[in-house]
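Summary for the steering committee. The consortium agreed at its last meeting that each partner would contribute one worked example illustrating the joint modelling workflow. Our contribution is presented below. We chose a case with several input lines so that the handling of multiple components could be demonstrated. No manual editing was applied between input and output; the record is shown as generated.
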Amino acid sequence: MEPAGLNAFLLLGALMFVCGAVCMATKRNAIGVLMGVELVLNGANINFVAFSYFNPVFRIEGQVFALFVIVMAAAEAAIALAIVLNFYNNHSSVDVDTAEELKG
Amino acid sequence: MTVPFSTIPEAAQNHWLWAIVSVNVLMGFMLASAIFFVWLERKVSGRIQDRLGPTRVGGKYGWLQTIADGIKLLCKEDSIPGAADQFLFRVAPYFAICGTFVAFLALPFGNGIVGRELGIAVFFMLAVLSSEVFSVILAGYGSGSKWALFGGIREAAQVVSYEVPRAICVLIPVIVAGTLNLTEAVGQQGGFFWNWYIFHDPFTFIAFWVFFICGTSSCKRAPFDLAEAESELVAGFHTEYSGFRWLLFFMAEYGSMFAISGIAAALFMGGWHTGLLPWDPAVKLNELMGWPGAILGNLINVPVFILKGWGGVFVMMWVRWTLPRLRIDQVMMTCLKYLLPISCFLLIAICLWQLVIDKLEWQVGGVTLSVPGLWKYGSALTCVMLIILWVLKLLRTRGVSPPGVTGWADKAPVMAGTMVGVK
Amino acid sequence: MSLQPFLFYTVAALTGLSAIMVVVTQNIVRAAAWLLFSLAGTAGIYFLLGSDFIGATQLIVYVGGTLVLVVFGVMLTAQGPFVNLKTGAGEWAMSLIVGVALYTTLAVSTLVTAWPTSTEESRLRDERSSTNVALLGQALMGVKEATPQGMVPGVNNVVRVQMSYLLPFEIVSVHLLVVLIGAAYLARAKRRAHRLPGVTN
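What follows is the complete predicted structure of the assembly.
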């Protein structure tokens, strides 16, 4: 078998991205939506690192960008969880369908 | 000094057969170490508690006690609580053992004797050891019992908090070494024992002790063992585990203890160097005889490293059976209010040392005195003298109680029927 | 190498399957466990692609940090035995249709495009198969090479200018500090509101 090429890695990244997007769309638990966001960011990161490996011109840039994405995703997860905890303290529920006070 | 070295030829290292061989050897070593540690723990705990420990199975010293324990654990009933989450309960122990074992892949046992030489060896080890916390959470939640859940959550908070000063304290010798590669970092500590990084400057000295404390805590060992506090939570996160699943948790704990001691030995205590020879035997014999000489030289290096690792584990066991357990708020306070500011201060100080103080030197009557040299030799010789004095004191007072303490045999016999303290 | 495709397909299958299971499973703690496998599999992909440092960072930040945070959030927002919040069948159908359409779009555009990849000579020029961490550190510190290597593919006589990432590095550091303070303030202990869901004041 020949080694896995760039397309294989990109397809895997696309699969993770789509799973994350569907997760964001279907989960009713706010923390489930957060998990979808993590999947999306990881799918994009796989693409970055795959490009950095298969094209040595971008060897450093791909990895630096992936590093920044990882760090920013961790920061965003922390803030999102703090917001979810606040929401839970006020509504006693993490169901995103109950977050409709600003509706209309 | 470091010579680009590979005891195993480069072509062989990339072959898939080497991967299988090295994984099997490392797994065998980890399991054999675990067997030894179980026996050692029971003997050490026994002696500290003024009793003998196992003495029946396998002769006078109970060598085969661990085998008996292992057979018992294998034959136990595999019971899973009814309220347990079936998938998570089963998966958690395997996560623990994987997290511990993968760290062994990057640990250099000798000069060129490493499962896979990584440019980021110590960072990789810390990263993999930090994934063990999830096994605790899954075990605690998946057991379906509130004691396990409490133990798991407290344990997760503790381990995650202590990872921060642990990583900062690992950074300090890495700054001195200039590389994350453990083989190179140990190679720079060659020669006599005053070249070890623990004697390099006062900040690495303090960093060693802080790292050891943080490492003990992140292995969930006493005095930070709230996750398994027998007197409080039955057995914490592994309350509902029995038999082989519990054995996996136990082996993971001993494996991570050895991994932490291995990192401490490699970064601070000179790794595989004996400290008593002016050169590395593997390098010297490699120059003389080539590749077989490297193997022969490593026959000295590998046992030295293993003994240093085992010594660290012995100290952890010694501390466990000596000190009382800390409460969870004391544990978190120690980390966040004491160890974290200390390690941040050490990080700044080591940068100052490397940039400024390292270069200070002055001439006194034809001899060059430099601050790093003075500290190096001075602290090494002071430590050696203190150890010699302590050993002499131990030998002198062997078998003699301190004044004022009477043993149980000195008390007058109490007559049956009399109540002590009642006139 | 005959090992690389075997390893890649194993790790990719694990990662993809775990990502799908995150979407499918109803229990939120099991979803966190599947997310753990998928993130650990992603770290394996990074190691396969020679990015040791990024793989180790992924493990220590995501698996050892963010996921623990997520599970703590799940525990803190639980109401009794975990109430499974179920999604309606209509929403599932619509999401799946959109998901499949999105994946088809991405896959087709990936396979159709002729990505400029390296030739064998430039790959063999790197002696070690994994990236040197020192290069990454130098890029983040803003140390520039005197003679940057590597040509922009497809264009002659253009030499790549090495970028310095010192400014984004500093911005990210300050950003993390701000996030730390902000999250600690947002999540500070307050009195719990004693309200039943659905009852408005």
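Chain A is about 75% helix and 0% strand. The longest helix of chain A spans residues 59-91.
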